[in-house]
Design brief:
The structure is a single chain. With about 375 residues, the chain is of the alpha/beta class. The chain has 2 domains: about 120 residues, Enolase-like, domain 1 (2-Layer Sandwich), CATH 3.30.390.10; about 230 residues, Enolase-like C-terminal domain (TIM Barrel, Alpha-Beta Barrel), CATH 3.20.20. It has 12 helices and 14 strands. The strands form 3 sheets. Strands 4, 5, 6, 7, 8, 9, 10, 12 and 13 form a 9-stranded mixed β-sheet that branches. It has a 3-stranded antiparallel β-sheet with strand order 1-2-3. Strands 11-14 form a two-stranded antiparallel sheet. The longest helix is centred in the first third of the chain and has 21 residues.
Length: about 375
């Protein structure tokens, strides 16, 4: 296989059309996107990207350009796992979580895109898919929404036959419970309602919230507590009548292994753009398979749908339109609440060339 001859890094900033506030009150008005395009000596191109909510993309772009590109140029894409290991060990003392792993993720996705393109296959076929489609659920029911806005958002997902609806909740437990009641009313008694607390609660508050919503039949409760407190998750799971989901803030297979070994989670939520790319994502897929634990990847439905189709325990992927449709030149389509595998060569997702100019961050 031809070696990688060049790697380009682009830092983009995509404004969000509606003001968003997290459960902690921080403004989420922009999405940073860092892309990597690798070109081999035969002229074939692979594209990968990561995203940073609310900013911070400059740090990721800099890390890729200064620390990872020298390792990538000259590498054989056929040995992608070896390249991943070199990048991981090179970054080890500077961050096994956060910026370094965001950066590694973007590069790894680009190399896998190049591999699949070289093989003339869609990524899911290159990896070995087990299903032709995966359902999607609707996210984006933010805590900053009024109750009427929340109802309207939930109704829009129900109208599209989505698998379920997820809402955010904040520190006010009375308001949190009321928000769950609203979404339950919209989806009906047989619909699926998921709740994301974005690490807002402690253990006692989480137990109170679970008790207060026990009769509302939650499909899962996501990241109720700080995600590093795995022992608290172990103390919580099995003692409340709702499945516990977490994983979007784990940055390698090692964190997921700890969650499983401590019996601290019911549903795993890896994010390919944060946790080390496709190489590491597929290792977590294997862990989920071995432990027979459902997989529900975090955001980025465009790429995660293609990866989830390679998992025997994939449950659903998360839909939220962080990036407008015209940001992409190619991406999968959602129909009747499901995403089918793409027949496009490579990842099945590519960024429109115009987006590199439209959203470019200039320094």
């Amino acid at each position: 296989m031809a070696a990688i001859a060049q790697a380009e890094v682009h830092h983009l900033s995509v404004p969000q059309p509606n003001p968003i506030r997290s459960t902690y009150g921080s403004s989420l008005d922009v999405l940073g996107v860092v892309t990597v395009r690798v070109t081999d000596t035969d002229g074939r191109v692979g594209e990968g990207w990561t995203y940073v909510i609310g900013g911070g993309g400059a740090s990721v772009a800099s890390f890729i350009a200064t620390e990872l590109v020298p390792l990538v140029v000259g590498a054989d894409p056929a040995q992608v796992r070896g390249l991943w290991q070199r990048m991981f060990m090179h970054s080890l003392s500077r961050g096994r979580k956060g910026v370094a792993m965001y950066a590694l993720s973007a590069v790894d996705i680009a190399v896998w895109d190049l591999r699949a393109t070289t093989a003339g296959q869609p990524l899911h076929a290159h990896l070995g898919s087990v299903s032709a489609e995966v359902p999607v659920y609707g996210d984006g029911c933010w805590v900053s929404m009024t109750h009427d806005e929340l109802r309207a958002a939930a109704e829009s997902y129900v109208a599209r036959d989505f698998w379920g609806v997820k809402l955010k909740v904040g520190a006010d437990l009375d308001d949190a419970v009321r928000r769950v009641e609203i979404v339950r009313d919209v989806v009906g008694p047989s619909g699926r309602v998921m709740v994301d607390a974005n690490q807002r609660y402690d253990l006692l508050t989480t137990r109170r919230f679970a008790a207060a919503t026990a009769d509302l039949d939650l499909t899962w409760l996501e990241e109720p507590m700080i995600t590093d407190s795995i022992h608290d998750y172990a103390r919580l799971r099995g003692r409340v009548d709702v499945p516990i989901a977490t994983g979007e803030n784990e940055y390698s297979r090692y964190g997921f292994r700890e969650l499983l070994e401590h019996e601290a989670v019911d549903i795993l939520q890896p994010d390919v753009h944060r946790m080390g790319g496709i190489t590491e994502f597929m290792r977590v897929v294997a862990l989920a398979d071995a432990w027979n634990v459902p997989l529900a990847p975090h955001t980025s439905w465009e790429l995660h749908s293609q990866l989830a189709c390679c998992s025997t325990t994939a449950l659903v992927v998360e839909y939220y339109e962080w990036l407008p449709e015209d940001f992409f030149a190619v991406r999968p389509a959602i129909a009747n609440g499901v995403v089918s595998v793409s027949q496009e060569i490579g990842t099945g997702v590519s960024i429109d060339p115009a987006s590199f100019e439209k959203y470019a961050v200039t320094t």
